[in-house]
Amino acid sequence: MKVSRFWAWATFIVGAAYFFIPLIATLEFSLRMRRGEYSFDAYRVVLGDIRFQETFGYSVIIACFTIVLGVVLVVPTAYWIRLRMPHLRPVVEFITLLPLIIPAIVIVFGYIRMYGSNSPIPFLGSTRGTDVLLIIGYATLALPYMYRAVDTGLRTIDVRTLTEAAQVHGAGWTTIIARIILPNVLIAVLSGAFLTFAIVIGEFTMASLLNRPAFGPYLQNIGANRAYEPAALAVIAFAITWGCMSVIQVLSRFAPKSANNPN
Amino acid sequence: MRLPLHWLGVAPFFIFALMFLILPTFYLVVGAFQNDQGQFTLENIASLFQPSILAAYWISIKVSFASAILGALIGIAISIAIVRGGLPRWVRSATMTFSGVASNFAGVPLAFAFLATLGRLGLVTILLRDVLGINIYALGFNILSFWGLTLTYLFFQIPLMVVIITPAIDGLKKEWGEAASTLGATQFQYWRMVAIPVLWPSFLGTVILLFANAFGAIATAYALTGSSLNIVPILLYAQIRGDVLHNPHLGYALAFGMIFITGLANIFYIWFRTRSERWLK
Description:
The structure holds 2 protein chains of 2 kinds. By secondary structure, chain A is mainly α. Chain A contains 12 helices and no strands. Helix content of chain A is 76%, strand content 0%. In chain A, helix 6 runs antiparallel to helix 9. The radius of gyration of chain A is 22 Å and the shape is globular. The relative contact order of chain A is 0.14. Chain B is mostly helical. Chain B has a single domain, classed as Orthogonal Bundle (MetI-like fold), CATH 1.10.3720. Helix content of chain B is 76%, strand content 0%. Chain B has helices spanning 3-8, 11-32, 43-47, 51-84, 89-102, 108-118, 123-131, 146-170, 174-182, 187-216, 219-225, 232-242, 248-277. The interface between A and B is large, with 84 and 85 residues.
């Protein structure tokens, strides 16, 4: 049963217009800083701003730590669930979906109340501690995406045979996970990593409420005080998101397609 | 005695989830039912029903609902067009790639993009005024309003729908259409009696996911409207920053209300998803 081609084209074109007009408008707006002619002034101002460089750098570092924490947390767990405790799979899947149910602002509110400087575990008592808590918060936000990416990757390899082969050769658990499993699901892990990066780099709520100098609060601050720079920043942010998604697309071409282990 | 060693493999994950996901939420939920002396009370929950807070919940629910329903309908129309419309292959792959990007393009930059488009000095606002002589702001449109926010949220809601629902449309087997037409069904009957019933659970499930997605979002709205549009996450944000409600426990209750609504929505989502998966094997 086919939908008429005319309506298909019409739907596609209207949809494309809705998505492209804001992007074109933003681009056009970002070039308008100099009166009467188009220029890259807004970009020059933004990129030259020391606050931009600092906050962007800070967020990139936080994103990298978030990815490391996410991988260390998710890969062994997903592996172990597949290998030894498949009955726990629904529970773990449910937990990884919780960050979609509990809004980020609620999670960070809980952190502020539980880990304040007078609490038994005073994460918020020091700047370093707050950074760690921010990384932890971001790892929970990215959990649904990271877990799904890794679990999909594990589905395409024969976890049991690989593990037994490694054990026969005398490998311990750390060796198995770091040198056998991780390289085999590397593409899936990288997809999760880039998605994490895209989510974390401009995140506003957690960074703002934990008072850390991240890129998201900087964006918000510029938006409240400047005219043309926000548009330039929006174009840059879109380019970053686009870049992350493109890398994921390219990676998915290298990922093994068929599952040789149906569980 | 094998059990403890077994559990060691998943212990870090469960400890992490407990410490940084479950307990912090639980802390707020318990706080919502306590007074300053730590005694049980329903007073905080009852205080949620004062007009200003109810209004915040109501506008949040309206924006989330409108952007979820519109996003779902437009998204599924685009999905059907690219899967079944006989369009060239590149249209489909381009749409899917773009949807992946746009569904993740939210937060503060999205607000900037819409201000540059439909703000008072936005390109579309100015083009409509200078070329067609339509001043949308004189006609009552405002980007800092219910419709402005809904229109902005659609920018990530529609692509999210496309990403989730396209596999379900792919799952509509060709044989069903052929079987239906062999039995003399019209196009309309095929959609009404075969396609829509099969798609219905995943459609509804995705609507709920979109709803929760919009309900918890704050960055876009905050960057777009400052605090002029009083939605729940913005109210909670102000409460965390400076106790604007002058009652910490009311803040907990506000958070509890948000979890309650998104949690309720997601219980429906899980239920619908398990129902729809039966068909998509």
